[in-house]
């Protein structure tokens, strides 16, 4: 089947896109590459191998329930928290 589109980016709605982008930039070993200051406010992370384009979009609403979107992140020593951290496998 021929695709009719492609994944441009994973966009995450949040109340503080700058802070969330800074946090996830540190997790993925990258940094903020661009900001769109006009509403809606977007903060983009620089691309790194193995990570799709990630964009944080300012939302006025506070989070009220469990996240519908999350990242499973491979780390050497996962500790339980809101993020899905999974143990790295050899390789």
Polypeptide structure, described:
- There is one protein chain.
- This protein has one helix at 17-28; strands spanning 10-14, 32-36, 42-45, 54-58, 72-75, 84-87.
- The chain is of the alpha/beta class and 91 residues long.
- It has one domain: Roll (2,3-Dihydroxybiphenyl 1,2-Dioxygenase, domain 1), CATH 3.10.180.10.
- The strands form two sheets. Strands 1-4-3-2 form a four-stranded mixed β-sheet, covered by helices on one side. The protein has a two-stranded parallel ribbon with strand order 5-6.
- Strand 3 (42-45) and strand 4 (54-58) form a beta hairpin.
List the helices and strands and how they pair.
Layout: E1 10-14, H1 17-28, E2 32-36, E3 42-45, E4 54-58, E5 72-75, E6 84-87
Parallel strand pairs: 1-4, 5-6
Antiparallel strand pairs: 2-3, 3-4
Q: What are the key terms here?
A:
single chain; alpha/beta; globular; two-stranded parallel ribbon; 91 residues; 2,3-Dihydroxybiphenyl 1,2-Dioxygenase, domain 1
How many strands, which pairing sense, and closed or not: the largest β-sheet? 4 strands, mixed
Q: What's the total count of β strands?
A: 6
Outline:
globular
Q: Summarize model confidence as the mean pLDDT.
A: 83
CATH architecture: Roll
**N/C terminus separation:** 33 Å
Question: Over all CA atoms, what is the radius of gyration?
Answer: 15 Å
What is the chain-wise order of helices and strands?
Answer: EHEEEEE
Spell out the CATH superfamily. Answer: 2,3-Dihydroxybiphenyl 1,2-Dioxygenase, domain 1
């Amino acid at each position: 089947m021929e695709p009719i589109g492609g994944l441009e980016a994973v966009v995450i709605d949040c109340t503080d896109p700058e802070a969330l982008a800074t946090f996830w930039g540190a997790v993925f070993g990258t940094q903020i590459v661009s900001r769109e200051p006009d509403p809606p406010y977007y903060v983009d992370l620089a691309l790194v191998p193995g990570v799709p384009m990630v964009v944080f979009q300012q939302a006025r609403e506070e989070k009220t329930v469990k996240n519908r979107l999350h990242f499973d992140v491979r780390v050497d020593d996962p500790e339980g928290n809101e993020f899905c951290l999974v143990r790295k496998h050899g390789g």
